[in-house]
Amino acid sequence: MFAIRQRLENYLQTWFKRRAPVSRDITLNLRNVYIFLSKEGLLYAFLLIITFVAGINYANNLVLGLCFLLGSLLVVTIHYTFAHLAGLQIKLVGISDTQVGGKVQVRLQVSSESSQPHRQIRLSFANNAFDFKQPIHRKPNTQSAPNDWLLVSQIQAPQQVSLWLTADKRGKFVLPRLTVSTVYPLGILQAWSYVFFEGHAWVYPAPLSYEMKASQFVPSDDEQPAALHTQAGQEDFDQLDNYVPGESLARISWAHVARGQGLMSKRFVESVGQQQLLDYYQMPAVTHEEKLSQLRYGVDSLTQSQIAFQLRLPDGEGAIGEGKAFRQQCLLRLAKTP
Fold first, then answer.
1. What is the pLDDT of residues 240-293, one digit of tens each?
2. Strand 308-313 relative to strand 264-279, pairing
3. Buried b (16+ CB within 10 A) or exposed e, 86-119
């Protein structure tokens, strides 16, 4: 039974995608808008049948007239419900990356190609796409709790709205199908459409803290341990060397000359910061995902400390860098690691 249901769902999914191909923007029309009775509409249809049977059985023209009036109202409602969804334009504006357990923000632009506004439009990535017992979103710029559904009271001029999806797995996050629906005006009919967006986000591993020790860092290519790197400069005294003819007399250590120790030249250095190598194989965790999470912690810690570092992953090494832009590059590498 489960296999039959799965086949049916796959067939319907393929059929819906053919009628609404994957893209970054779509206009709802006769080809991709579906309409059927809602739960209340089923009760309404049952009432029509009972009224019609009663009118025929008792030969009561008044009851039959009421039945035809209610039937006409249903036909008119079909037109209005469809019209309030057809012509709606939806465009994917952007998707934000996040970490495991975080929220992916999906920014959409909704507008209408007709002069009439669209009312009571529900946008939802959730399974309960037809649950309209929710608060109405009256102002598109109102900051509310992140959710995967949104009920917009009226759409006419272009406006941007945001939906939020929970990311529970590291890697490439492909957007699920968006359900756009309405039960306007009477609630007895529901019109809906499925939108398949061409877009994805990247989900980074969540940071997992660990004790960062010097022994856990691999020496850099010049075989120096993870320590303070220096270069010739003017700040800090480093050592004495033999005087080389042509050097500035200001560098000569005259105290040594006075003691008869010959000409000695003072050397100065300046700090250029630390350079660390975050190595996947040196992480203390056991599992693959935990190692990546510890690397994420190391990336955040070294970036906050303004220390240059290099990230070594199983798929290769990257360049040495620092700063927020370099941190973002490292997070993307962690997200894309197989």
1. 667 667 666 666 776 766 776 677 776 665 444 456 888 888 888 889 999 999
2. parallel
3. bbbbbbbeebebbbbebbbbbebebbbeeeeebe
